[in-house]
Amino acid sequence: MSERPAQRTPNRQLAALIAEAGFSNAGLARRVDQLGLEHGLDLRYDKTSVTRWLRGQQPRGTTPALIAEVFTRRLGRRLTAQDLGLDACAPVYAGLEFAATPEEAVDIVGGLWRKDSGSHAELRKIAFTPAGLVVPSRDWLIGRADERVARAEPPVRVPAQGRPAPPGTPAPPDAARRRAAVERGPGLRVGAGDLAALRSVGELFRTLDDRYGGGHARQALVRYLEHELEPMLRGSYGEQTGRRLFAAAADLTRLAGWTSYDIAAHGLAQRYFVQALRLAQAAGDRAYGSYVLVTMSRQAVYLGHGREAVQLARVAQQGVGGSAPPVVQTLLHCAEARGHGVLGEVRACTSALVRAERAMETARPGDEVPHWALFFDEAQLADEFGHCHRDLQQFRAAAQHAERSLQLRAPAFARSRLFCRIVLATARLGLGELDQACRLGAEAAAQAAEMRSARATEYVRDFERRLEPYKDAAPVRGYREKVAALG
Q1: Distance, CA of 443 to chain centre
Q2: Which of 44, 60, 84 is a domain's end point?
Q3: Residue 62 lies in a domain
Q4: Domain of residue 103, residue span
Q5: Which of 28, 325, 413, 454 counts the highest number of beta carbons within 10 A?
Q6: CA distances (Å), origin 258, targets 56, 126, 213, 237, 450
């Protein structure tokens, strides 16, 4: 790798951190190269490269951010390139930071919204990184609640003796900022009507996502976040309203991540989930934070990172303890079970499913359930069991639970029904019932063709890969003809 011309000043900040971390020059170079591989970069640094950095030379491109991330992982605190005496550049984990304050959280998530709503297509190509899950989940678990989130309305400067300013007098800077905020949003002062509107917007986009897939209206959601929600977060509000505003922001940001996940923009989705987690902390809502962690666990399961999925689910359980309603407890145990299922850990998966079932049995009519957990009913529980038994290749049990879920699940949850139908098709295939498997698979493929959902497409492709050993059988040929006719 080529370097910039050497500076004459030795980099004492980097030297001090190398000593604190206990790295050798060769050890630091090796770790930077390994981290580069996680991001698809073929770096060839060695101990001589580190010696040059210590003498004051500056590495090019994203390497300063990679070096900073190596030290962040080693020392357990977030470090930037500047902290190492290196040139500033975009952090390699930009958007995965767990902000120190609510104000910083708004800055980070607002930056994500603005980039995502623009023409930054590269943002949707960022890779998912399992290592990026560690610090945010830890910081959420051990972090203290924010003492204050209220924001006062910036004062307007009044001329001397209270006389109005003469015509043509420049507006004071704070007034200009206030006017800009008003122009960007529905109003500077956030009230109950704004909060009700945010809840309605969330329900609207959730319904579209469930029926048609995350790609249908994702960009409209992100633009709403940028142009409507961000000005509210930067407006003025009291403590109680502020907590509710951050709760709504967490919910909508998680939904933006969920729809990004559904179109396979996995690195972007991961960043939205981390920021939703931080916004939930600002809201003072531990239960919702646990739900965000479950969402992150779901993504890890989908991408085959079972160990990380289990860890996230356990952090969520530890974070709420026994205070969450039974339905939320059920949701958390199911998330852990799904991680064990992907790993093929039969006993651990079964144990988590038993805990989930017992938690659900303790639920009583009239229990207060958070609005975001209302979807988790008997149909969803059966779906979770079906997925787990499929992953453990327990096909008879998988078929029983998948059939029950399809019987109970409302048509509005079209994508969930599609997933469950593929689970049932896979179970029928595993039981040797090829005709039924192909019929169910063809129904699901027809549904997927009507959605903008990469996950729906991938479920169908996974089923088709399982059909390969039977490719010459008549039912499989018939399946392929039906799918081909869909275009």
Answers
A1: 30
A2: 84
A3: yes
A4: 98-152+178-284
A5: 28
A6: 43, 15, 10, 28, 19
What is the C-alpha separation between 15 and 331, in angstroms, rounded?
47
Contact of 390 with 423, CB cutoff 8 Å? yes
Cα–Cα distance, 429 to 402 (Å, whole number):
14
Mean pLDDT of 167-192: 52
Distance CA 12, CA 440 (A): 65
Q: How far apart are CA 147 and CA 164, in angstroms?
A: 38
**Is residue 69 located within the same domain as residue 182?**
no
Distance CA 250, CA 282 (A): 9
Q: Are 144 and 253 part of one and the same domain?
A: yes
Structural tokens at position 410: 């409302």
- What does the DSSP assignment read for 81-119? TGGGT------TTTT----SSHHHHHHHHHHHHHHHHTT
In angstroms, the CA 467 to CA 461 distance is 10
Give the chain's end-to-end CA distance (angstroms, integer). 47
Determine the residue type at 446: A
Say if 357 falls within a structural domain. Answer: no
230 plus 137 within the same structural domain? yes
Top pLDDT among 183 and 468 is at: 468
Together in a domain, 44 and 139 = no
Last residue of a domain, one of 235, 269, 284: 284
Whole-angstrom distance, CA of residue 276 vs CA of residue 260:
13
Q: Is there a single domain that holds both residue 71 and residue 200? A: no
Please state the φ and ψ torsions of residue 244, each to the nearest 5 degrees.
-70, -35
* DSSP per residue, 414-460: HHHHHHHHHHHHHHHHHTT-HHHHHHHHHHHHHHHHTS--HHHHHHH
**For residue 157, which amino acid is it?**
R
Backbone angles phi, psi at 52, to 5 degrees: -65, -40
* Domain count within the chain: 3
Does residue 305 or residue 176 have the better pLDDT? 305
Residues 190 and 279 placed together within one structural domain of the fold: yes
Q: Is residue 314 part of a domain?
A: no
Distance of CA 325 to the CA centre of its chain: 23
Residue ranges of alpha helices (H) inside 185-265 are 192-212, 218-224, 230-233, 239-262
Q: What is the DSSP letter of 126?
A: P
Residue 160 has pLDDT above 50, yes or no: no
Residue 143 lies in a domain: yes
Identify the CA nearest to 244 among candidates 214, 203, 297, 282.
282
Residues 57 and 112 in one domain: no
Domain check: are 110 and 188 in the same one? Answer: yes
pLDDT at 171 over 90: no
Closest CA to 288 of 260, 316, 330: 316
pTM beyond 0.85: the answer is no
Two structure tokens written together for 49: 């490269």
Q: How far apart are CA 229 and CA 222, in angstroms?
A: 10
| DSSP element (H, E) containing 356 | helix 346-361
Please say whether the beta carbons of 440 and 406 come within 8 A. no
